[in-house]
Amino acid sequence: MSDFLSEWYSWIKALHIIAVMAWMAGMLYLPRLYVYHAGAAVGSELSETLKVMERRLLRAIINPAMTMALILGVFLLFTPGLVDFDEIWIWIKLFCAIIGLGGMHAWLSRWRRAFAEDRNKHSAGFYRKINEIPTVFMIVIVIMVIVRPF
User: How many domains does the chain have?
Assistant: First the structure.
């Protein structure tokens, strides 16, 4: 398996980056849809349109992109010579990716279900603030992987 990972490293890394970009794009766009949805009247044409957009974005882009990012990320973790698990940067990166972005993904999914069932409890302002969280995790992740400060 290690020969496969080493041989295909460039492809795995490229596909991982593409998957992460798609995941992040969706994670940044979905809360923006929630901002508009929070201001739409329940049962209105806008509300119903946003429900369809949110469901499709989550199911067709965000969920598959997250799955691929995680699978390919595991491949990268076990590529020989790439990661030293004694270094702190990898643990910070994994925490931000799995707990931070994974947790945010779970919350976005939960809020989508609430909108789908017309039981949203949050304001547009709440979703505007939430929209910044994936960006913070992304910044930390990129710094950990590229700079490896620890």
Answer: 1
Q: How many residues does the chain have?
A: 150
Q: Within 13 Å, how many C-alpha atoms sit on residue 139's CB side? A: 5
Q: How far apart are CA 79 and CA 75, in angstroms?
A: 6
Per-residue pLDDT tens over the stretch 57-108? 999 999 999 999 999 999 999 999 999 999 999 999 999 999 999 999 999 9
Query: What tokens were used for 64?
Result: 């598959």
Which contacts qualify for 91-98: CB closer than 8 Å, 24 or more apart? 92/140, 92/144, 92/150, 93/140, 93/141, 93/144, 93/145, 96/137, 96/140, 96/141, 96/144, 97/69, 97/73, 97/137, 97/141, 98/70
Distance CA 85, CA 11 (A): 23
Q: Which residues contact 141 (CB under 8 A, 6 or more apart)?
A: 93, 96, 97, 101
